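Comment thread on ticket #2218

A.B. wrote:
> Attaching the input chain for the structure job we discussed in standup.
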Amino acid sequence: IMAVENNKKNSSIAVDIAKSDWDAYERSWDFTRLPILSTPHQQTTLAASYTTTRAHWQHMTNEMQRLEQENNRIFIDAYGLQDELTPDVPLKEITLTCNPYYRYGGDNSLEQLEHRLQTDTCKELISYAIGNMMGRYSLNETGLIYAHANNIGFDPTRYTTFPADADGILPVTDILWFADDAANRVREFLLAVWGQTTLDENLLWLADSLGRKSEETSEEAIRRYIATSFYKDHLQTYKKRPIYWLFSSGKHKAFEALVYLHRYNEGTLSRMRTEYVVPLTGKMNDRIRFLETEVPKATSTAERKKLEKDIERLKKKLDELRLYDEKLRHYADRRIALDLDDGVKVNYGKFGDLLAEVKVITGGSDD
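C.D. wrote:
> Ran it. Output below, let me know if you need it in another format.
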């Protein structure tokens, strides 16, 4: 009887650990806040917060391993299987997402496993930060804050520590064209969470965790991740049914912006055009003119060639942007409405080639 009671107790604790692990990620219905931002894990720096969180995850993994092995012993003893079975459970079979041995497996070394876990945790932090920008989450409250439709009922007063974006449109560009672009607001998010004193340290640690190149600044590395990889990770997290949609001008990425599905409304495309695309056209024109005046001043052939290359690249972007502006104006005039009951796949297909990864999201037969 004692063995049965111990087994029940162990099983109950194991279920609680597994639920805690599952709820630590955005895909859980019961997600409240990233562990790295929760008491008592949040410390004075991002790196220290991760270290504390990682120690907690290791404790969870060790405790789950102990419980599973204890339950194995109970059954082995109850059925007299000591000569046939061992109670041992290897770490790779402890099915917690916070356990890198299970999450990644393979022939990775301990150093590689830890590196991947740190990198993915930083990607999850950026995803959560973007969720705060969109108003899906808030530093002032836990859990899901806004996931209704058409921006109806959106309350800006619930985001005082880190204000949500005014329109749910976040530019994603390879250089800083707009103060409210996603990469720049990640910096503001770190500032809101950890303060000014450790901002540079936190930016560097985040950038290094994301794979900063030797010639890159912290901001450049974070911007590169958001511009080139964030959406791919987002599609993977949400199984090709994204909640943030990437509007893209095309191959040259002259203009890209994330829009929160639940805050999209019939005026979103018009606002995107007037607040971002049209002003960006002017900004690019001005930049090209400025660079053209710099070419004659170049003091070396290498400098002149670099300027000419930048001008050519910007001209290609400008041509693409002008074409995109025409398409965007056409769709904006239609004032397209969404019916969230139809699902992401149907709604995503309403915008032609204004969006990125259209075939990936709408092309499958599964729902």
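A.B. wrote:
> Thanks. Noting for the ticket: The chain has a mean pLDDT of 94.
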